[in-house]
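An instance follows:
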Amino acid sequence: MARTPQEEEASDRLGTFVSRAFADPLAGLLLRAVDGLGDDARDFLRLAAVVASAPIPFHLVAAVMGSLRAVDRGESRRLAEAAIDEADRFALTEEPAGDRSVHPLVSRVIRWTHATDDLDRVRHAAVAALLERLPAQYDPGAYAELEIELVHARVLAGDASADPEAVLIGRVARYDLVRGSYDSGERLFTMQLERLLERRNQTDRDVIDAMSNLAGARFVVGDVDGTIDLYRRVLELREETEGPEADAVRVARGNLASTLTLAGEYGAARDVLTTMLDRNREALGPQHAETTNAAWELYQTLCELGERRTAHEILSRDLSWLLSRMPVTLGADQRRVRRSVAELPEFE
């Protein structure tokens, strides 16, 4: 019997893993088994082909089925169970209970022989499902229960051909930073920014967020100059796109000021903190916690620069009022600043 083009390709590629005597019959056997499956079971195997060679959590199979078939949670679970059972009957899965694994050779045959559009359709559904489960912000407590999802997310994020995959890169990068893999986290945030900039301009909010995330990652790997450059650019873009009084602008200015201070660039930090204090006083009020924090940071920076007169002016105008308040009436940050102010020679 003549072999199909798919069998020819699968056999040629399998020949790099097994002897040629086994490659030809194995290719035909696997492809005929897959061809005998229904659509749901084939999509399950396509899922195995685009994610990592690791057990696939049942909830991920169900979420992908729900997305592909546009059905509710109950029906998606039923479809997932039926798809896995059908693949089991053809001996295409490796674990009889719990999360399923598909043998890497089966996954490779699917990847080699199935249409790119079909694989992409499943890949996009898997990315969307993982984005629903992985924390959008740093959440160390959640990661312990998501280890296998992060394994699959890392593989999918490595092929960031669309915006959702680029977002997924950031989720994996946060995990790496939390677990102490700083170089990997910095590399992934760099990749995320590059992928987003391929399709969007610098004023896009997601691009600015990615730039800010990369700045933080560069700081933890010791690239202080790179961190400062990025935070400066983030501040410029935030002001341009959101206006000078936006919350995101205050955060960006605070990140830049803190980094400059830690780098010992007190003159530049003073300039940023002076603007931050003035903006906070105007937008939030003189006794707001963020105003107090900015005033205390500016006071300390001025002292480092030896600018005692200006530092005393900040102390009198923006910080001395704390001593007239009972600590219980203040928030945690202002109580901390109040204690520090009370210990200054001027008030002893």
Notes: The chain is about 75% helix and 0% strand. The chain has a mean pLDDT of 90.
